[in-house]
Description:
This protein has strands spanning 3-7, 10-13, 18-25, 33-39, 46-51, 58-60, 68-73, 78-83, 92-99, 115-116, 120-125. It has no helices and eleven strands. Strands 2, 4, 5, 6, 9, 10 and 11 form a seven-stranded mixed β-sheet that branches. Strand 5 and strand 6 form a beta hairpin. With 126 residues, the protein is an all-beta fold. Helix content is 0%, strand content 48%.
Amino acid sequence: xxxxxxxxxxxxxxxxxxxxxxxxxxxxxxxxxxxxxxxxxxxxxxxxxxxxxxxxxxxxxxxxxxxxxxxxxxxxxxxxxxxxxxxxxxxxxxxxxxxxxxxxxxxxxxxxxxxxxxxxxxxxxx
Length: 126
């Protein structure tokens, strides 16, 4: 199984940017699709962005479209989440996750993901 470790979280002011990284080890990174989820206290977990195995297909939640960008470097076994124009409502624990699905329509589906990182805290102050 692929092991996942996130980094890059922190405290930023609204309007600023952060770039999260998720490093994978222990498996074939190019054989899994990847996603970033977030969960704020008292709220349900949300799939904010996902990317297919090759990187050719992506998914974004409406709440982050135009502000967040997901990409991956299969040579470095890493997936990234570039977050721009951050808002206080983006405050959450962000986790990366992996799925072996090869179907693009399944990228948004949390139940398809079976490998998870520990998460990294992102806090956006107003």
